[in-house]
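User: My collaborator sent over this chain with a note saying "see what the structure looks like." That's all I know about it. Can you take a look?
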Amino acid sequence: MLTAINKKTQTLEGLESFNNALSKHEDINDYPSVDQLSENVDPQDRDKILAHVFEDKPTIFDCIANTLELSVNAVKRTLIVVAPLLLK
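Assistant: Without extra context I'll predict from the sequence alone. Here is the result:
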């Protein structure tokens, strides 16, 4: 995920888009623990973070699932939890 963020922020447009996304989540530091953060992040926001990072989510999910021999749903559930943590 960090590699994808780095790749997408190499252009001015990508960097501005990422900064806009970060500014919408400035309250992320109000949560003292990762558990509280993961419980309080809007599921739609989680999905938006993934969409911002990965241009083609289904392909990425399939690739990760195949590599790790997991179901696509397990990969998606994991990434949805991890996505807001990267902003923290």
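A starting point for your reply to your collaborator: The chain is about 75% helix and 0% strand.
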